[in-house]
Amino acid sequence: MAAERQARDPGTASLELVFVAPMLLAVLMMIIAFGRFAQTESLVDQAARDGARAATAQNAKAEVGPLVQEIAEETTERTPESCSGSASARSSMTAGAYGLPDLADPTRVESVTVQVSCTLDLSDLFALPLRSVVVKRTFTSPLDRYRGYQ
Hints:
Helix content: 40-55%
Strand order of the largest sheet: 1-2-3
């Protein structure tokens, strides 16, 4: 009986392959895209975190900006080329950052915030409608009140 069935349907396997192959290819491309995004997101998050923590270790406000940019560039070197080429970092701080602590307000906490962003290019994954994704991460780190700032 199985031999009769194979004789009647000689092209069903190839027809099934024609319908299933594009879907399998799209699923494979989605897996690759999610993997790239997850890796890039993790590295951009690490760059923001490392930049903010390094900024809190500085004693002068003027040293923060160039240091944050340098750390972001070093960390995003391990991301895909499109992201490492478009990576940017900016830092902001509260009004009293790197100044003497306000003794009248002992609960006030000064902080440094770093935002790192880059554009991840996914256009080489031809089966997906995604072309590029902007990945942004922000991290805020408090400054030690009793540290000697200049």
